[in-house]
Design a protein that fits this description.
alpha/beta; 5-stranded parallel beta sheet; 18 helices; 18% strand; globular
């Protein structure tokens, strides 16, 4: 037994020795590959070099494969399985969906367990604009998609297209993008969707608002006054725009409002930055026609930018349209008009170090404002150096719009620091009417009436000049935009409705049928003895869809009173609708 045991151990030792010998041989071979061979025979030398090259390229390929396999695993260890790749240009299968993750530059110690919100920004103009009937279908479609995919945020829906800022789960956002791609013969096939994934739950919008509007961006250029969208400037991707920013004979127009530009903007060498100092976009056409603006644009390349790109569409189209139709603009010799594709949001994705950007980008979502990713992740001391704004009360560096306070003289958001807000709350130092935005201070504006009267006068003078030059038509009286109501769910296909709180004195069939389209029969609720109308009644709708639209309108004011509309299916006891009901009167 002892001899057998010794023999067995001897065999194990031999095997170990062979393995170690082989390992040493392999290591020596690798060392030889990294040394310069001392061989005089040229063919042999070439063979060794080519073999060495092949060996290195194979090693590089293996290393690259290992890195690609390890990267997603590393991200999953840091942030969980829901983590997206750091930057994806584009989403596989759709070249126009661009997404990043908010966790790319997150601190390793940060709690990211609730970072499951995806933000979507996009806009799309359509040519020709939708007609009235199809526009109503688009409104219904957007409401249906938003409800079914649990989207929250804002959808601005005009006859000229969509402008949306939405939040939801990542899957819900992608499903919405896919649905739009397939909508109405490819009107959204080239739309660029910009996604920011892995945002914290508190940055999700609380509800969905589908808003019917006259313009995607309110420039006062709706209908016949709108320059054709094909006149828009040349769209430059962030890399090309970045290069153009540094060229001479270039002016850069910030198409955003002044309070947005106060906390961040482009600052590139050689080009000149222009701030129209607008409180709202309707002031842009007036600013563009001012003599000092024309002198700035003379003989220059004109670059425009905004948050997501949508405001540049009409702004650049207006300038290019006037370059062809307005003699005064035509004579300026403008070399070209360009705009940043995807806006500041996309520029930040391409240049996480900020590129030529300084400060923060104001946003209309729950982020409020954000810097380029690398600057957002910088230490607090470094962030303090990049602050461009100032508190309107104490003038200390500040760049966060918080609270609901607005400038008391013009109504734009107030830039107030945390300490001044607290001092006002504690009654130590009140934020009175003297604490105004920097634009009101600069222009010596002391009341809202002063701003309104000046703007109205400038607009009247501008439109009179444009009409005299034959560039635009006179403004028509502006009517109130009709409110759109989303259809109410109608799974049972009910067509009989109960109406309450109608005007007893003046309600009639014509008025009711005009207010609620789709009515085929009306039964008024009256006193059997006196015939007095009680203000209630029943109607039969042409289709379940018409009934759903009508119930969605519940609360609509007709003849000064809100009408309350609800489903009420027939009980089967009486014939419905009655044969005489169509011409029934109170």
């Amino acid at each position: 037994k002892k001899k057998k045991k010794e023999k067995k151990e001897h065999k194990k030792g031999k095997k170990k020795h062979k393995k170690s010998k082989k390992r040493a041989k392999d290591e020596a071979a690798r060392d030889d590959d990294n040394k310069t061979p001392s061989i005089t025979d040229e063919p042999t030398k070439k063979k060794i070099k080519s073999a060495k090259k092949d060996n290195i390229s194979q090693q590089q390929q293996k290393q690259n494969q290992q890195q690609q396999q390890q990267q997603p695993q590393q991200k999953q260890q840091d942030h969980g399985d829901r983590m997206l790749p750091p930057v994806t240009y584009p989403v596989p299968g759709d070249k126009k969906i661009v997404q990043t993750s908010a966790l790319d530059y997150a601190e390793p110690t940060e709690d990211t367990s609730d970072h499951n919100v995806t933000l979507l920004l996009f806009y799309q103009y359509v040519e020709p604009p939708w007609d009235g009937e199809f526009y109503q279908k688009v409104l219904s479609k957007m409401q249906h998609l938003g409800d079914s995919l649990k989207l929250t945020g804002r959808m601005r829906v005009a006859k000229e297209g969509l402008n949306c800022t939405l939040t939801s789960s990542h899957e819900g956002i992608l499903a919405f993008c896919k649905a739009l791609r397939e909508f109405n013969v490819g009107e959204f096939k080239d739309t660029e969707f910009k996604l920011t994934a892995d945002l914290p739950q508190q940055q999700a919008f609380p509800s969905l608002k589908v808003m019917p509007v006259a313009e995607l961006v309110h420039y006062g250029l709706d209908g016949e006054k709108a320059p054709p969208i094909q006149y828009t400037g040349v769209h430059l991707q962030p890399e090309d725009y970045h290069e153009k920013l540094a060229q001479e004979d270039t002016v850069v127009i910030d198409v955003r409002n002044h309070y947005e530009a106060a906390i961040g903007r482009f600052a590139a060498p050689n080009s000149k930055w222009l701030d129209p100092k607008m409180r709202k976009s309707t002031e842009f056409p007036v600013w563009l026609d001012k003599e000092e603006t024309k002198q700035e644009l003379k003989g220059k390349n004109v670059l425009m930018y905004c948050t997501g790109g949508v405001r540049c569409e009409r702004a650049s189209a207006l300038l290019k349209y006037k370059m062809e139709t307005d003699p005064e603009i035509k004579d300026l010799g403008i070399q070209g008009v360009y705009q940043l594709q995807g806006g500041i949001d996309k520029y930040f994705k391409q240049f996480p170090d900020g590129g030529y950007w300084e400060g923060k980008n104001y946003t209309f979502d729950k982020r409020f404002a954000h810097a380029p990713a690398e600057k957002d992740a910088a230490p607090k001391e470094e962030k303090q150096k990049n602050i461009m704004g100032k508190c309107e009360a104490c003038k200390k560096p500040w760049d966060m719009y918080r609270g609901k306070r607005r400038c008391p003289t013009c109504g734009v958001p107030s830039l107030i620091c945390r300490e001044c807000f607290q001092a006002d709350k504690d009654g130590i130092r009140k934020l009175d009417r003297n604490v105004r935005c920097d634009l009101c201070v600069e222009e010596n504006i002391t009341s809202k009436a002063q701003v309104r009267q000046r703007d109205e006068q400038e607009l009247r003078e501008y439109e009179a000049k444009m009409a005299a030059r034959g560039v635009t038509i006179e403004r028509e009286p502006k009517g109130k935009q009709p409110r759109w109501h989303p259809p109410a769910p109608n799974a049972d296909g009910i067509t009989r409705l109960l109406l309450k709180n109608m005007c007893r004195k003046n309600m009639d069939e014509a008025t009711l049928m005009e207010a609620i389209p789709g009515i085929t029969h009306i039964v008024w609720k009256t006193d059997r003895k006196t015939g007095q109308f009680f203000g209630s009644g029943w109607v039969e709708m042409a289709t379940p869809e018409d009934a759903a639209v009508a119930v969605g309108m519940s609360g609509k004011r007709v003849l000064g009173r809100p009408i309350y509309i609800s489903y009420q299916a027939p009980d089967g006891k009486d014939a419905w609708p009655p044969a005489s009901s169509k011409d029934a009167w109170p």
